[in-house]
Amino acid sequence: MKNRYSIWRLMSLGAALMTAPWLQAQDVLVTLEAEKGIITLPAKVKPVDGSTVEGISGGKYVGDNDPGSSIVFNDIEVPEAGTYEFKTYYMSMQNRSIAVKVNNYSEYISTVSNTTPGWDVPPTNEMSTYIYMDKGKNTIKITPMGSGGPNMDKFEIITTDVELPKPGEFPIVLEAETAQLFGNLKVKPTDGSSVAGLSGGKYIGDFDLAANSYLRFNNVEIPEAGTYELKVYSMGSSRALTIKVNHYQKSIIRTKDSPNWDNAPTSMVSTLIYLDKGTNTLTFGLHEDNGPNIDKFEICTTTEEIDKPEVEKIAYSYDFTDEAEISSTQENSTLSLLTDNDEYTYYVPETSNVEIVAKCQQPVLLTGFLLSAGIDSEIDVDTWKLYASANGSTWKEISYDKVTDLDGAHLYEITRYPGTAAADAAQYYKLAATHENLEIAEWQLFGLPYVASGDKNFPTDLTENIDVHSNVSAYPIGESGDNFSEEFYNLFDRNMNTKYYAHEATSFYVEIDLEKPYTIESYALTNAHDYPDRDPRKWILNAYNEELGWVELDRQTDTYFPTRYSTLKYNVNSSTGFTKVMLDVEANNGAKDIQLLKFQIFGKEFNGAGINAAQDKTLSIIADQGKIIISQTEGKPVNYTVYNLSGTVIEQGTTDVSYREIVLNAGAYIVSANDGSKNKIEKLIVK
CBM6 domain location, by residue (predicted)? Predict the structure, then answer.
């Protein structure tokens, strides 16, 4: 026993230890009993009554590893500088993570991949990460990640064949199994075995889009800001990954096919990323499909350069404070920055406590809210209070069911039900915030409008007096059966109890004939109460004008609803009158089915002014019943190609002089046409 740590040595520390030729991979050099470390509260040695637990090393463990806790071991000796496996024996009924910091190097993350039957009784499970240690004495600090860590029995430092560069040297190797894992991601093989040919013998798998799976590396230390090459080593089919560095906008990389999913060899692709000087956070997510299995990442130096990316905002583009009247007990010129959907601007009250009231345009059934004190703020926004009121004088504190740390903001979710919606809806919301040197970067309110009128609760819009059975068409129609209907008509009934649902469909379109022209000011989509993976994620809003034909008014490519029962509203502000509107949803959030609660359009009857000059009509492409028609008024032949939305060529050819009817099945198509003097591309819906 030395320094209170149980150290197993293969031989005495002498001259032979200087080179340690006898060390083999998987030799346990040091065993650290968790209860023997220097423990910072709220963590504590358990059982607290002084008894012991049979089956636990030493009969003790460290529990209550809540935020602020730490376990420190000093003077941990290893014979050579280099990479070692750091194995943790734990008990945890949840997938929790710890950070392992060696000396002054960046933290390494170790994540529970297999939970245990209980928190306080054996058996324990094992999880590992790789750490770089200096020759001789080292200090190791273990801290919980997020809301807390597992209960910990002991740690082992083990020799390994994995070779990490010394911190600060390149390439920087990020073993996928040492990342912080979210969604369904897990370290594989799950039985604890190793895979020959893979770095560290492990990889991560179950990269599921529907579960919003992603992995994150925190505190990646970089000596200088600039461009670096990122290499991704993966297995399985070619898949797209999103790469988010710190708070910059995401980029996308597509992996290459490898011979199989679970064994070497891996494939490698690389891209350029921008990293800041000092610590960086790298987050890898999914783009439109499930992901590959991943072995490791490498960060390398490069002589190439890319521009520093734009910052990507956390705040959502719309919430109910956007249209609300905002007042405060401390009003000043910065108050408007509180609700500008930008967490990089700040409302700075003049005192350490403040109350802000949002009077919404109409009552809102609140299903969530976002709070930010700023990207790098240490203020605990969880201590702030939110209240609701129907009249602005009698207030009730709001409780939430779930909070998500967005790394710069907290998103709070509230479960709501139609049966209690009328009682829960409120027009006034009040935020009470307290902190010395108080700053508030963003406050957002999410939910759906609740204007009770019989069985309707959404506000009126342009579809109010439309006969949806004759003026609206859609594909797929939706599901129906005995005593239920989830067809597209439900999108327009203004009732939160009904929704549109299409089985085994990931896209849909709905077209509305407004009968007379309207200017379109805005539109809104409201998602359903369940299955986030069925939400629309990518869509286009098109509108039809007699002179202009179909015009794209808005496009959303990567949208996520903040909560269940959440309305997102988008301003269009067209000056042109349109007689038809079409919502074309191209992709959902990963499920095999798709659904939407409501689709609303807001605007005014067109007064005849503001039509732009009509576009050149010498070459036209239009959709008709069961066909597409291509025509050229000057008698020129037209070369054309028809694609489906996946990019597959359906038909191509040349018109007979200047006209061609192309018979097609119902669906969405992209048509490219060229008459020798101009090229035209249209996306059309064939009914």
Answer: 30-158, 172-300
